[in-house]
C-alpha cells in the first residue's frame, strides 16, 4: 500500500457525552467509545442504540449503520442521528445541512470530519441479558 499521501486524524482526545436538558437527545463527541456513551446515559436513566463491544468508537459505528443489542427496539445507530457538526476539506466547521445529514447517516465521514453528533436518547431503567452456554443450546437439538 502506498502511504505517501495518507492523512491520519486522531480524535481520541475529543470525547464526551452531554445530555440535553429535555433528556431527549445527547451530544456525543467524535472520539467517544461505546462504553462511555452507554455508561454516561445509564447513570442518568437513559439509553440509545449502541454496539456490542465497549471499546469500539461510537461515531464510526453509528454513521456507517450501527447495529447492536438495542437495534430491535430503537433501530440502528444511524437512525438516532439528528444533527452533526462537520469540518469540510476547506477547514470550515459547520452544522450539517439536511442533505449532508442524510449522507452522514450511512456513508459516515465521506463528506468531512465529523466532530460531534447529536443523537436521540430514551428512558432506560432495566436491562436484562440472558446468556445461554452453547453446550446447553446444542443439547436441545440432539
Ligand atoms: C471488535 C469490533 C466489534 C464490532 N461490533 C460491531 C457491532 O456490534 N455492530 C456494528 O454495526 N458494527 C460493529 N463493528 C464495526 C464498527 O462499527 C466499525 O468498525 C466502525 O467503523 C468503528 O467505528 P470507529 O469510530 O472506531 O471508526 P474507525 O475504525 O476509527 O473508522 C472507521 C471509518 O470511519 C471513519 N470515521 C470514523 N470517525 C470519523 C469521524 N469522526 N469523522 C469522519 N470519519 C470518521 C474513518 O475515516 C474510517 O473510514 C465492530 C468492529 C470491531 C472492531
Sequence-ordered SSE layout with sheet pairings:
Elements: E1 17-19, E2 25-29, H1 34-43, E3 46-47, H2 58-63, H3 71-74, H4 77-80, E4 81-87, E5 93-95, H5 98-107, E6 113-120, E7 122-123, H6 134-141
Antiparallel strand pairs: 1-2, 2-6, 3-7, 4-5, 4-6
Flavin-adenine dinucleotide binds next to helix 2 and strand 6.
Please characterize this protein's 3D structure.
- The chain is of the alpha+beta class and 142 residues long.
- The protein is built from 6 helices and 7 strands, in the order ββαβαααββαββα.
- The chain has helices at residues 34-43, 58-63, 71-74, 77-80, 98-107, 134-141; strands at 17-19, 25-29, 46-47, 81-87, 93-95, 113-120, 122-123.
- β4 (81-87) and β5 (93-95) form a beta hairpin.
- The longest helix is centred in the first third of the chain and has 10 residues, at 34-43.
- The radius of gyration is 17 Å and the shape is globular.
- The mean pLDDT is 92.
- Residues 11, 30, 51-53, 56-57, 59-61, 64-68, 108-109, 113-114 line the site of flavin-adenine dinucleotide.
